[in-house]
Amino acid sequence: MRKIVLSLHTTVDGFVAGPKGEMDWIKFDDEMFDLVGKFTEEADTALYGRITFQMMENYWPTAADKPNATRHDIEHSHWYNKVNKVILSRTMHSEGSSKTIIISNNIFNEINGLKHQDGKNILIFGSPTAAHSLMEHNLIDEYWLFVNPVLLGQGIPLFAGIKEKTDLKPLMTKVFPCGVTALHYTLDK
Q1: How much is the pLDDT for 96?
Q2: Which pLDDT does position 98 carry in this prediction?
Q3: CA-CA distance, 89 to 139, in Å (whole number)?
Q4: Per residue, what are the HEC states of 119-160?
Q5: H helices of the chain, where?
Q6: What percent of the chain is helix, strand and coil (3-state, nearest 5)?
Q7: Whole-number pLDDT of residue 56
Q8: What is the mean pLDDT of each run of 10 residues along the chain (189 residues)?
């Protein structure tokens, strides 16, 4: 069975974005990009909410073609262009690509069906609303939380809509040179 792997930046006080969706507090470094490259090697499907998908579509398809493209930009752009994309959205109806599936209803059944298909992992970058929907149905198998050394005090919470206790098993903790701490958990079944 395929795994759903969530990769998400958060603040120490548990927010994934500021009150207006701000993400200017997120820190990155090359070591972190190398880790993300390992996630993408193990995934053939990207899952997004509508807002994150539209942000990704505005950047990644042509990121490798820019004159100042970094190694990460080139690698991630190539991955983004070849993988299937699943978008959770009640407002989008057609993306016009055979590599894109839009799920509007029956999230549990549709995502569970995808998990049972042949293939590599399904990777979620960001997309807090989509992540909340999947968390609500216990569909996320692994969590990679990148805790940034900042307090926002308010914003979009990391864990919203959780209705019952979910046990997680810690697998790894890593502190990056930029000060971000990665926490890797798996669903403790």
Answers
A1: 63
A2: 75
A3: 17
A4: CCEEEEECCHHHHHHHHHCCCCCEEEEEEECCCCCCCEECCC
A5: 30-41, 50-59, 71-82, 107-115, 128-136
A6: 30, 30, 40
A7: 92
A8: 95 95 93 91 95 91 94 93 94 77 92 95 91 91 97 94 86 96 91
Residues present in the chain in total: 189
Strand pairing class (168-175; 84-88): unpaired
Place of tokens 């990391």: 158
The rounded distance, in Å, linking the Cα atoms of 100 and 80 is 12
Neighbouring C-alpha atoms within 13 Å toward the C-beta of 130? 28
**Whole-number Å distance between alpha carbons of 80 and 106:** 26
Contact yes or no for 149/179 (Cβ under 8 A): yes
pTM over 0.70: yes
In the chain, the amino acid numbered 2 is R
Domains and CATH numbers, the chain: 4-187 (3.40.430.10)
- The pLDDT of residue 19 is 94
Match 């900042």 to its residue by tokens. Answer: 150
